[in-house]
Automatic annotation (TrEMBL):
The active site is at residues 172, 270. Substrate binds at residues 95, 149, 290. SUPFAM superfamilies: LDH C-terminal domain-like, NAD(P)-binding Rossmann-fold domains. It comes from the Bacteria. Binds 1 NAD(+) per subunit. This is 6-phospho-alpha-glucosidase. PROSITE patterns: GLYCOSYL_HYDROL_F4. Belongs to the glycosyl hydrolase 4 family. Keywords: Cobalt, Glycosidase, Hydrolase, Iron, Manganese, Membrane, Metal-binding, NAD, Nickel, Transmembrane, Transmembrane helix. The chain crosses the membrane at residues 7-26. Its cofactor is NAD(+).
Amino acid sequence: MTLKKQSILVAGGGSTFTPGIIMMLLDNLDTFPIRQIKFYDNDGDRQKQIADACEIILNERAPEIKFIATTDPETAFTDIDFVMAHIRVGKYAMREKDEKIPLKYGVIGQETCGPGGIAYGMRSIGGVLELIDYMEAYSPDAWMLNYSNPAAIVAEATRKLRPNSRIINICDMPVGIEYRMADILGLKSRKDFVVRYYGLNHFGWWTDIRDHEGNDLMPKLKEWVHEHGYVTPEELANTSEEDVEESWMHTFEKAKEVSWLDEDTLPNTYLKYYMYPQDEVAVANPDYTRANEVMDHREKQVFSECNQVVNYGSGAETTLKADDHASYIVDLARALAYNTRERMLLIVENNGSIVNFDPTAMVEIPCIITSNGPEPLVTGEIPRFQKGLMEQQVAVEKLVVEAWSEGSYQKLWQAITLSRTVPNARIAKQILDDLIEANKSYWPELS
Ligand code: NAD
Ligand code: G6P
Ligand code: MN
């Protein structure tokens, strides 16, 4: 059977992740054929550096694919099957502020968790809704696969404010951890096992992991994680070829202490910010946060590689390579395009899957993906510990979306106060007032 060729738009063409996505799409053309790739960004200069390099690589490796990069929404969104969206409204300059402002008050400064994530959410909602509106205007049958962060808040905003839109919100963190689980278990691939998992984005737990014969792999994994977190045996022995930054290694180690809280499950790494906030503040450098690290490493490296491809006029020697994690995006697109019924974790409306939890919450759970969209699986009842934590966190996320659409200062103050990462309402207000000042040109006006 010949597969219908797809037309893809990468929104946030200037993202540091764009070259990795393109290399990954090139690696998968046999099962996900492409006729056209377009890039869209609202910063034409930033996008051009990435696009010029990708154009050269595409011409060399798949000249049949038509390529354009544009800042014009109509040109970008017309004749598209899939929008792969990864924008960062305010870019790294604003991420740096999201991280540094809370730290001034001794509170977690993080891209998606706590007040920093809330601030980023207040910027991101408008940007992602704009992309949805362009898609609906110019390619109403397309699907948007969105990984623009903070995914939890963006997902709630799209559920509430664009209820009929064809957007699916996704995260690579469970996939990234499952790569590590495969290493820990000595398996070749995360596809050698099937998982059950539930939670909110960056706030969830694995409850069951089995191989294809049905053997329970949780006991062996738990034993390892309780002692080493998600650090792999190769990393422990210093024989790993992966170059993982110090700050991420700390996160994978810290999962150990998070895992001790519940004997029945294995945790997402980001729970460390909510279970041990003071520890994370203590190891943070308020003058040099993750945004600085990314600007100095990933951003520099990606842009200088792209500039080099353009200078050589060839990508034959490039070190740009497919981002392994990103392969789940093509799994998702393929499932929607060709009805593969792949099983994946997605961020979807609960709608009864977790029976003792708000049906309108956006939860991260396993779904079967058909050409008609995701069919979420039933989770059942969840225990009191997780339920309590999730109810608090989902209230934070819903309050942020209400604050954004109503322009409510009070609700945003409540949201920050309710975050487990923030010690009291006074500090919440001080952080909020600083964030308002820093985000003047991005947030709706609050009163
Ligand atoms: P980046 O700053 O390098 O790239 C983002 C691009 O978006 C920039 O080129 C910027 O100009 C563009 N942009 C900003 N606002 C826009 C708008 N309104 N319209 C169009 N383009 C706009 O950022 P990055 O580090 O490469 O990350 C990109 C996004 O992907 C972030 O939101 C990041 O958090 C997210 N991400 C999510 C996951 C996940 O698990 N969901 C994984 C990786 C990255
Ligand atoms: C993980 C998360 C993403 C997040 C990324 C941050 O992959 O799932 O949601 O964007 O980490 O990584 P960075 O390297 O930008 O700090
Ligand atoms: Mn994520």
